[in-house]
Amino acid sequence: MVTKAHAKINLSLDIIGKMPDGYHEVRMVMQTISLCDIAEVCESNVAERDRIHVVMKNSNIPADESNLCHKAARAFLDETDSCGKTTLMGLDITITKNIPEAAGLAGGSTDAAAVLYLANELLRTKDVDSALDTERLLALAKSVGADVPFCLLEGTGLCEGIGEKITRLSAIPDCSILIAKVKEGMSTATIYNEYDALDSPYHPDVDRQVQAVLSGDIREIAAYSGNTLFEVTNSHIPAVGELVDIIRKTKALGAQMSGSGPSVFGIFTSEKDAEDAADAVRERFPEAFTYVGCPCDSNREL
Ligand code: ATP
User: Fold this and answer.
1) How many angstroms separate the alpha carbon of residue 103 from the centre of ligand 1?
2) Measured by CB atoms within 10 angstroms of the end CB, which terminus of the chain is less buried, N or C?
3) What is the sign, positive or negative, of the torsion defined by CA atoms of 294, 167, 261, 212?
4) How many other CB atoms sit within 10 Å of the CB of residue 19?
5) How confident is the model over 232-278, as pLDDT tens digits?
6) Which residues form the catalytic set?
7) Whose Cα sits closest to atom 14 in ligand 1?
């Protein structure tokens, strides 16, 4: 079975507190975009319980137990095994990577979500009663990572808690989205730690952006895009702020950093304007990754 594993952008990202366990409490408007990895999953035909085999194509990311696909497969097999119903013998997983790694685009989370989705679909074809319902699949997704539940559902959502409490929102209007990313990176953990030391971080108006999404106003959606982590990431990787400035000087309706960066996105009414902005980015940063695509609505039935 095959599915596209789509990347996400954070139209907005705010941090509103810390959980007792140290996790940050977030409020984010997340949007699935057309940039995607391809995930293929089949039941392994070796009679060896819980055999999990991951192949990463077009990527140097280790395919071992540290891979989020491996963790998702393990979580799925453990869960379905404990039900005492029909289970899968094992899982052979192949990911063809197109989403840049550690970029703030949820590349790992979306692969993990795709594995959970496909494994459940495989189980459904074997025995419809053994497949996990949406609630259990989402709980499994949360156990793999905070962004995995949203990646499983796809579409547009307000994500709260650590990101797993999802309120689905209406699809945003058709538009073009440019993703631009320079090579430098920084660990997400470091960015969150440094964020904690800020005296008065900027907080985007997430409620206003949710209103903009609900009213389907792409100009307002772009205008209220904000990211509380931008200041920290930009202080280490100034190219992030430069990218935002370059894109804002084009015909973009808005530009912002996604997640903890370093990816930056721009929102445009036309593909041509987005391609022109990509040219402007490559003129300044010839080595930058650029991609022009569009937002995607959810088309998974869980
Ligand atoms: P997020 O936006 O959810 O914070 P990200 O886009 O910043 O995620 P990922 O691409 O998910 O970051 O990668 C984060 C780390 O996860 C990387 O260091 C990578 O080695 C590891 N990882 C494990 N499995 C995968 C996978 N299947 N694809 C990408 N990264 C993976």
Assistant:
1) 8
2) N
3) positive
4) 10
5) 999 999 999 999 999 999 999 999 999 999 999 999 999 999 999 99
6) 8, 147
7) 102
Per-residue pLDDT band for 82 (boundaries 50, 70, 90) equals confident
Task: Identify whether the C-beta of residue 60 lies closer than 8 Å to the C-beta of residue 139.
Answer: no
User: Which residue's CA is minimally distant from atom 28 of ligand 1?
Assistant: 108
DSSP state letters, 138-196:
HHHHHHH-TTHHHHHH-SEEEEETTTTEEEE-PPPPS-EEEEEE-S----HHHHHHHHH
Compute, in angstroms, the gap from residue 110 CA to the centroid of ligand 1. 9
**Residues lining ligand 1, Cβ inside 6 A:** 61, 67-69, 95, 101-109, 111, 147, 188, 259-260
pTM over 0.90: yes
Q: Are 193 and 229 in contact (CB under 8 A)?
A: no
Confidence of residue 279 (pLDDT cuts 50, 70, 90): very high
Tokens describing residue 170: 């209406």
For residue 204, give both structure tokens. 């985007």
- Size (the chain), residues: 302
Task: Please give the pLDDT value at position 48.
Answer: 63
pLDDT in tens, 176-216: 999 999 999 999 999 999 999 999 999 999 999 999 999 99
Structure tokens at 194: 């440094």
Ligand 1 center to 265 CA (angstroms): 18
Q: What is the DSSP letter of 295?
A: B
Which of 68, 94, 256 for mutating ligand 1's site (highest number of atoms within 8 Å of CB)?
A: 68
- Ligand 1 atom with the smallest distance to the CA of 71 is 24
Separation CA 6–CA 174 (nearest Å): 17
Tokens describing residue 18: 């810390």
Q: From ligand 1's centre to the CA of 28, what distance in Å?
A: 18
